[in-house]
Amino acid sequence: MSPESSKPALINIRFLPARTGGGKAAGLSRLAAIGLAVPPALVVIDADPGNLPDGITDAWNAHGGGLAAVRSSGADEDAEGASAAGQYETFLNVEPENLTQAVGRCLKSADADRAASYERQLSGQAGGAMSVVIQKMVNPSRAGVIFTADPMSGDRSVMVVEAVKGLGEDLVSGHARAARYVLNNLPDKGGSILKEAADDSEASDSAPLDDKLLESLRAGAALAEADWGVPLDLEWAVDGESGELYWLQARPITALADSLDSHVADDELMTRCNIGEMMPGAVTPLTLSTFGRSLGTGLELYYRSFGALGRREKSPSFIESFEDQLFMNLSSMYIMSRRVLGATAEGTELSILGYVLPPHEIGPMSPYPLRLLNGIRYFIGLFRWKSRVRALEHLAKGFAFRTDGKNAAEIVAEIKEAHPKVMDRAVCLHYGASAFSGAMNAALAMTLSGGSDVTDDARRLMTNLLSGVEGVESAAVLDDLENLAKLIKADGDAADLLEGVSVDAIHEGLLTDRSAVGEAYRAFMERHGHRCIREAELREPEWAVNPRHLIESLKSLVRSPAGRRMPKPVPNTRVATASPELPPGVNAKAVAWIAKQCRTGVRAREKSKSLLILAIHRFKTAARTLAARLEAEGYLPEADLAYFLTLEELDRLTGGQGGGQSDGLIGRAIRRRRRYPERMELRFPDLSHGRPSPEEIPVPEGKTALNGTPVSRGIAEGSVRVVKCMADAEALEDGEVMVAQFTDIGWSPFYGKAAGMITEIGGALSHGSVVAREYGLPLVGGLSGACRVLRTGMRVRLDGGTGSVVILDGEREEEPAPV
């Protein structure tokens, strides 16, 4: 029978039209379409308890008859966005003559408070239309579920099977103990059963599964997962008479379907070092699917440029994602050490980790002639950083999205087209420009240490040798802001511009002011307005869009009589004079030459980083316009939710992949946004084998001396201000020691207030560290757990030249009472 919009109907599950019949029915229809055995079923659509299709019993008998299972199939039930499993009524072993009554009772359950509340909460919508599935009962010998990923850990390299004797409903309801098997879900690795993980021998004996059945379950589940594209929870049963395997239900594992986590083997090395400085904390799905992906693709393109990867060779994965945070796959990075002469595992580790690991296997080395050729290409390429910076400047400044008059679907299509042409290429050029800096710094560290085991003395010497570098783009942020403050101080009338009723009013006043102050402010925004805290995150507004803390910092600089707190370091141009400090046997001339290249590399890298962020700024602008269009056109209830869907999901949402309906994506975005603040707070170890797990940083009891990495020399003493958000930063008072998870150019406007800074991550080459050194701000980096160990109000002394932090007092000193 064919459905009619004006009255209820019955449809054979195998001929169910797309987007009809609810989640459960759609899942069964999809399983049947890919060739899996599904018991005969009919779907009741467009019905309600008072308006049922005629002849349900007759239709069922014509379909084969017999006992039936009657189950709900809500619009969002068992759907990718919100699996409302267990929220509606199910009836088993229903006689044909009782089907009409069972269908009516099932439909009534759609109005139950528990179901409606669940559906509204998880999908962001009121409950949708309810359909009902009438399915032939299977009299099983064994039944159960198979998860195509571990539902507890999220490990997608395995499948988990749970089985009971008889009906699987006893397992789902929790009334039976299950035998549990873990199967391999990596098609390139042999073997199916990894382990039988049943803790209860009685349960295992009650539902034994042989290798043949387990392989059939694994193969069927893998086929379904490949078709869905997300981890699945599938119910199955083995007919007690025929022994045939039937598939009874399929639904995404909602939390894992939301997940964008990578799949890695247990022996692969993951690290948050280096990438954690560029992308601190969690990233939104839209950022992950654009810039996060480009970080991997750009590195692939860079490696291909000098032969570390063949032109047609499949690239390993360089960037991974876990719990919404980005990691570098160090195991993949070793490909350069194996294929490029002069590149070593120790050098790779120094550039990324900041230290060298104990000797370990990195894989087979390429033939010497090939490594020699690649080494020559690589070395020549290092000194082409100028041409790469010029190319990046041309790309970033010459590109712009044209979104005027376009709808959401058209903007998504434009972003998709520009992504590989602009963002991938910009990242590749940035890698090429900044590789010179990384290589020279690794060389300097090993030269000062007399080998690959970098010493603390070498780190201190490097901090000295890299101080006072002139012409650094990121350091110009604070210089230009201070110069603007001086202009305002010198012009009494200009100070009135900072007395606006709102930040927006002050911003607009400065932009339109025709004096030298307005000209300087416009020049600042032209040069630096694309930057901000966590500037590679598409959701973070640039200073030009949200200048609030810039304006507040400018006010503070104008009010402050002292100006720059620390004297700016004198450029260390005669680096060879450091020779008396050099360890015995270290060649002072070699140190001087390499240090000079390092200082040049700092300038190149910071200029390149600013241009890369300018390219990202183009995508931010398009993303903001897209988000507004999605809300205006009714695709999303809030514009901000756009950032919590990937670019591919936004394409589906707007119809670019045959979509055009939410398909539960609204609920997915809501859940992801709800989890985002928690993911921001997660901390991971520097290095992990396989999937990283968040770690709790223990608070040392009674310890007053802590050690981090020396980053920017100088000694500072003051009260701690722990900064986790912008409100914390704006509360920073003159002379306080700023404690944050990371250094970032976005914090630059606050450096004028701070006496010193302590960070959890970040080394001598991080962008915020460069600014701190040029500003003369003492900074200790790499102090794991600093935001938990140190509390606002504590008094500390830090030495940025040695990396030491001493807790002087646990409480803020009381202000003297007024006389």
Question: How would you describe the overall organization of this protein?
Answer:
- This protein is an alpha+beta fold and 819 residues long.
- Helices cover 41% and strands 15% of the residues.
- The chain has 27 helices and 23 strands.
- The protein has an 8-stranded mixed β-sheet with strand order 16-23-22-18-19-20-21-17. The chain has a 6-stranded antiparallel β-sheet with strand order 9-8-7-6-10-11.
- A hairpin with a 2-residue loop joins strand 13 and strand 14.
- Helix 10 (285-305) crosses helix 16 (408-449), helix 16 packs antiparallel against helix 23 (647-654) and helix 19 (503-512) packs across helix 20.
- The longest helix is centred in the last third of the chain and has 45 residues, at 588-632.
- The protein is globular, with a radius of gyration of 31 Å.
- The model is unreliable at 1-5, 81-86, 113-128, 197-205 and 811-819 (pLDDT under 50).
Taking strands numbered 1, 2, ... along the chain, how are they ordered across the largest sheet? 16-23-22-18-19-20-21-17
C-alpha Rg, in Å? 31 Å
Which ranges are low-confidence, i.e. pLDDT below 50, for 5 or more consecutive residues?
Answer: 1-5, 81-86, 113-128, 197-205, 811-819
- What's the N-to-C terminus distance? 92 Å
What structural class is derived from the secondary structure elements?
A: alpha+beta
Tertiary shape: globular
Q: What count of helical segments does DSSP give?
A: 27
